[in-house]
Amino acid sequence: MTQPDEPRFRRLLVTGGAGFIGSCFVRDRLARRDGTQIVVLDKLTYAGNRANLAPAESDPEEAARLRFVVGDIADPQVVAPLVADVDAVVNFAAESHVDRSILEPVDFLRTDVMGVHVLLEACRTEQARARAGERAAAPRMLQVSTDEVYGSVETGESAEQDRLEPRSPYSAAKAAGELLARSYFVTYGLDVVITRGSNTYGPYHHPEKLIPLFITNAIDDQQLPLYGDGMQRRDWLYVADHAGAIGHVLEHGESGEVYNIPAANERANREVVAALLERLGKPWSLVRRVADRPGHDRRYAMDGAKLAALGWKNTMPFEDGLAATVDWFRTNEAWWRPIKSGEWEDYYRRQYAARLADSRDAE
Ligand code: NAD
Ligand code: TDX
Fold first, then answer.
1. How does DSSP assign 45-98, residue by residue?
2. Which atom of ligand 1 is nearest to the CA of 72?
3. CATH number, domain with residue 164
4. Which of 108, 128, 265, 347 suits 189 as a labelling partner, its CA being 20 to 30 A distant?
5. Which of 147, 157, 266, 297 is catalytic?
6. Considering only CA atoms, which residue is closest to atom 26 of ligand 2?
7. Tens of pLDDT along 8-57?
8. pTM of the model
9. What's the domain count of the chain?
């Protein structure tokens, strides 16, 4: 019999563990000091940052249970030996920014679709080894997906069995990745679980995304480019709640099942921006109304009954989470300033220069 606090999977491969949500998962897991050993596989793209794991790497007990491998999930030669040594794979690795997928979709297909395929094939090899008695059990694979696969939801809430209607290259690639994962459960009997998390925010969030972009620009009194009317609605989930829910599904989720991870904190973009400006003590006049994102999803909202029935509950209220996030960015300039340089400047120009030149007051 396992004890209630004893992890079901002791050796984890966490792909994309140097990114925003993956690094939170790794930090929080190691901080439990339950003996879990983690191998992080991360390509360290523009979005990956080893500094995100510094709190774990600077703690000798945690560092001894963490191994960091720089590599690509779409490279079978890198992936196979790592999957051979673990009990479960948690795949956070992805190209994750919708605007970049609109500028340049190809990397999204490579990582978010082909990368998932490579991980699944490695798990299938291990399944064959388990069947041959060469290892105890096949690894479990948790595919981290997103609420964006449902497409824009004007009213009501998406439930897990609803039709997928992705509308951006990013969400289409994520949908393809999770459907492939599910097909490996159906066809090969692989132990696969899938999560669909909602818009996540918190410390270590890459400054390309709405909340950290607006916080860091506002700190520097720079303009804040609000797309369209700013009345798009998102359900904001604190990063530690998202990472915790993924861990819960990893332990308790039923094989072949999909679990929504909503936050129940739905807000219009304008409300979010007003709240963070208030916390920073900065004026609304920084906000500029700019040309909209093409194909912009108006709203995401998910039903969380299935995850609640599995015994998971989020803990962070939105107002507290946003205040903690604003304060974290205020006190961690040494983390985000280097990210907003180099490659960032080209991206920022491509994404925003013409938009800001044609912008108007947001009122
Ligand atoms: P992120 O962009 O901050 O991090 C992605 C990480 O993956 C980076 O460390 C990057 O270096 C790594 N990576 C990219 N391509 C790779 C490759 N080919 N091989 C190995 N590593 C690679 O993303 P995030 O916001 O932390 O999102 C993590 C996961 O959660 C993604 O799968 C994303 O689709 C999903 N998700 C994100 C949100 C959100 O609001 N951020 C919400 C729901 C789901
Ligand atoms: O400059 C901006 N101006 C603006 O108005 C940016 C970057 C965003 N926005 C709007 C677009 C969205 O309505 O803010 C909202 C949030 O935008 P993002 O932070 O880019 O997130 P979103 O597109 O909703 O996607 C996020 O949630 C789901 C993550 O980036 C995805 O990885 C995740 O799957």
1. -TT--GGGGHHHHTSHHHHTTEEEEE--TT-HHHHHHHHTT-SEEEE--S---H
2. 19
3. 3.40.50.720
4. 108
5. 147
6. 199
7. 999 999 999 999 999 999 999 999 999 999 999 999 999 999 999 999 99
8. 0.98
9. 1
